[in-house]
Amino acid sequence: MPLASGDDAPTVTAPNQDGEDVTLAFAEPTVVYFYPRDDTPGCTIEANQFQRERETYQDAGVAVYGVSTDGVDSHQSFCASEGLEFDLLADPDAEIAEAFDVEVQNNKTARTTFLLADGEVKAVYEAVDPDGHAREVLLAALEDGLVTLPE
């Protein structure tokens, strides 16, 4: 069972698609979405929709990170082919998935999204439908008053 709302957020470090280590401590509002595999239909839909909403997330002060068990090279190729401008974190040993208690089967993470801020989990989305999910998380963060958009 994944971390729940109100749980402390783990501090994690992993390489992004450029091989640069990224450490997340979740003081600022952050979305971390786990997805099964690069370049698959559902994962591509989800990534493209987070990319489409990227500017609005940025305006609201929310960082977005995708995580899968794919490696740096796979993430780099996926970002290039889909024009993704946010970090995908490589988790080949499922250490980040383990830190968030996200299920891993056949080296693929369960589609799970976390909204984090102030060092804790604010919301968890399990068994996510990739289509429309990026907008759903953004609207929930705005409705819950976790973030606001500039006037």
Automatic annotation (TrEMBL):
Catalyzed reaction equations: a hydroperoxide + [thioredoxin]-dithiol = an alcohol + [thioredoxin]-disulfide + H2O
First-level EC class: oxidoreductase
Record keyword Transit peptide present: no
GO molecular-function terms, A-Z: thioredoxin peroxidase activity
PROSITE patterns xref list: THIOREDOXIN_2
Gene3D superfamilies in UniProt: Glutaredoxin
Xref: Pfam families: AhpC-TSA
GO biological process, one term: cell redox homeostasis
Ranges of residues in domain Thioredoxin: 3-147
GO cellular component: cytoplasm
EC annotation from Swiss-Prot or TrEMBL: 1.11.1.24
UniProtKB keywords: Antioxidant, Disulfide bond, Oxidoreductase, Peroxidase, Redox-active center
Positions of region (Disordered): 1-20
Family: Belongs to the peroxiredoxin family. BCP/PrxQ subfamily.
Protein name according to UniProt: thioredoxin-dependent peroxiredoxin
